[in-house]
Write a structure and sequence with these properties.
Belongs to the oxygen-dependent FAD-linked oxidoreductase family. Its EC number is 1.5.99.12. Its cofactor is FAD. The chain is of the alpha+beta class. It has four domains: about 35-125, Uridine Diphospho-n-acetylenolpyruvylglucosamine Reductase, domain 2 (2-Layer Sandwich); about 140-250 and about 540-545, Uridine Diphospho-n-acetylenolpyruvylglucosamine Reductase, domain 3; about 255-400, Vanillyl-alcohol Oxidase, Chain A, domain 3 (3-Layer(aba) Sandwich); about 400-505, Vanillyl-alcohol Oxidase, Chain A, domain 3. It is about 35% helix and about 20% strand. It contains 19 helices and 19 strands. Strands 5-6-10-8-9 form a five-stranded antiparallel β-sheet, with helices on both faces. A four-stranded mixed β-sheet has the order 1-2-4-3, covered by helices on one side. It has a four-stranded antiparallel β-sheet with strand order 13-14-12-15. The protein is globular and about 70 Å long.
Length: about 550
């Protein structure tokens, strides 16, 4: 596919917010409720059909309120075990018109993955609740085996604390820890550790999965490998993850958290690439490498994603940063990194001091604009939570989030920065990003091509970039403006011939998914796996990838 055609892909993606969605084939609400009522006596699961339960289950983190009614399920199912979920899926399979079923963890998806229009949403958190008492953590650490078994409904923050109790920790994280294990593993799970360890889906030893046919299967690279590969990054299309075995390593105690400001994208990306390289003077210095785009008008809504215990900048620093941004035309770049040390890790504070001394001498940031804090390992990993709580307190969290997440080739990242960060976003946003904008590189070697997650085709370059434009539509008119901005970003990429792969993808039709997201080879494999593990297209129909009956 030509670069211009690939760019056009993104236009179709971002236009979907204003595109009429196709009708999703499903039985009537009454027939679905009648069928699943029979499960109440056969399982320990509970069923709710009231408006409060179904309204909550029809929304997600990215949802525009106008789409809620169209996504409303007939019922919400609260299972007590994987066997309850299996019974639900078998009931759907046995129906003359199989009803859709979707798993809902924290509802943090942005493209309908957790919705089941006219069907049943499975409240995964119920797996960790007792009917007659408090929640029970389905977390079991094997110190000898160096792994943790975590229920698919468990939050990553709880996985962290359970592992730390034994001096251990997972290696790969998502930036926001208050998401479910099953949720991030159905996408990819990326953050600043991915350059070294790959995404979270590349750091799984074993899964328990309930397939679309209602079969409970334990799978790994050695056992039922095709299902294992299908489910990881599979967008919830092949099965519900009820348990994941995550490898653990010795845990550090502290993090030296660094922020360096840059006046141009070339200096930032060049330094980021030196830090993630396998060889060179700076190889291995940092354990975490990300970056972001800053504007001179950035406030809480623009910086919530990375809140330290105390501000990185004094009032005097803030004034200097604003002046630097003005000199740079209204846009700055920030390299954000961390070095872990202490605890069970091999690195000492003295090692960190030496490494940072070399790094600060070598990197090309704006001199005088290096900021460092020393925090606990937990404070660093759970830093986004502080920003979330501030937004909740201000009434700014439960709003539409028209996010745009892209993977881009290294060869075009500077073209993208010039056209989007210094062009589209300043023109459309009036200088206000209205949410964090992330930009950082990852190494291709950490990604497993056998898994379902789609990442850029191999162009001979080890490095590719992720860009996350993570806006919040707070005021009247924001949503329309941001969707128009997404469209303009897409148009710029198409005109410039910049190939883009969408992370956390969302498309309006199966044809778009097949041609514009997966491509022929990947689509053929994805569709084959769907026919094998969910032949009635029961799972995650809200994404509009498959409908019942499946095409031959």
């Amino acid at each position: 596919m030509a670069a211009a055609e690939l760019g056009f892909v993104l236009i179709c993606v971002v236009l979907m917010a204003t595109t009429l969605r196709p009708t999703l084939a499903s039985p009537t609400t009454t027939s679905v409720v009648d069928q699943i009522r029979e499960l109440e006596g056969a399982t320990a699961g509970r069923i709710r059909t009231d408006a409060a339960a179904t309204a909550l289950a029809s929304t997600d983190f990215g949802t525009n309120a106008s789409s809620v009614d169209a996504a409303r399920p007939a019922a919400v199912f609260y299972p007590s075990s994987a066997a309850d979920i299996a019974a639900l899926l078998r009931a759907s399979s046995a129906s003359a018109s199989p009803f859709p079923v979707s798993a809902r963890g924290c509802g943090h998806s942005t493209g309908g993955q957790a919705t089941a229009p006219g069907g049943v949403v499975v409240d995964m958190a119920s797996l960790g609740r007792r009917a007659d008492g408090p929640s029970v953590a389905r977390l079991a650490v094997s110190v000898r085996g160096r792994y943790i078994d975590a229920g698919g409904e468990q939050l990553w923050v709880d996985v962290l604390h359970a592992a730390l109790a034994h001096g251990l920790t997972p290696r790969s994280w998502t930036d926001y820890l208050h998401l479910t294990v099953g949720g991030t593993l159905s996408n990819a799970g990326i953050s600043g550790q991915a350059f070294r360890h790959g995404p979270q889906i590349s750091n799984v030893l074993e899964l328990d999965v309930v397939t679309g046919t209602g079969e409970i299967v334990t799978c790994s690279k050695e056992k039922q490998a095709d299902l294992f590969d299908a489910v990881l990054g599979g967008l919830g299309q092949f099965g519900l993850i009820t348990r994941a075995r995550i490898p653990l390593v010795p845990a550090p105690a502290r993090a030296r958290w660094v922020r360096l400001l840059y006046a141009d994208a070339a200096a930032l990306t060049g330094d980021q690439e030196r830090l993630i390289a396998e060889r060179g003077a700076l190889a291995g210095v940092m354990d975490y490498v990300e970056g972001s785009v800053l504007t001179d008008s950035q406030g809480l809504i623009g910086s919530w994603r990375s809140q330290p215990p105390s501000s990185f900048f004094s009032e005097g620093d803030a004034a200097r940063v604003a002046a630097l941004a003005k000199e740079a035309g209204g846009v700055l770049y920030c390299l954000e990194g961390a070095v872990y040390y202490g605890g069970a890790a091999d690195t000492t504070a003295a090692d960190v001091d030496k490494g940072l001394e070399v790094m600060l001498r070598e990197l090309r940031y704006a001199r005088g604009f290096a900021f460092v804090q020393d925090v606990s390992y937990v404070e660093f990993l759970d830093r986004v939570r502080a920003g979330e709580l501030k937004l909740r307190a201000a009434g700014l969290w439960d709003v539409p989030h028209p996010w745009l997440n892209l993977f881009l080739p290294r060869s075009r990242i500077l073209d993208f920065a010039a056209g989007v960060f210094h062009g589209v976003m300043l023109r459309r946003g009036g200088g206000a990003m209205m949410g964090p904008v992330l930009v950082y590189p990852m190494n291709r070697r950490g990604w497993d091509g056998a898994l379902s997650a789609v990442f850029p085709e191999d162009d001979g370059d080890e490095v590719f970039y992720t860009v996350g434009i993570l806006r919040s539509a707070v005021a009247a008119g924001d949503l329309a403006r941001m969707e128009a901005q997404n469209t303009e970003v897409a148009r710029f990429c198409a005109d410039a011939g910049i190939p883009c792969t969408q992370y956390l993808p969302s498309y309006a039709t199966q044809a778009e998914w097949a041609a514009r997201h997966f491509g022929p080879g990947r689509w053929d494999r994805f569709a084959r796996r769907k026919r094998k593990y969910d032949p009635n297209a029961i799972l995650s129909r809200g994404q509009r990838i498959f409908s019942y009956p499946l095409a031959a």
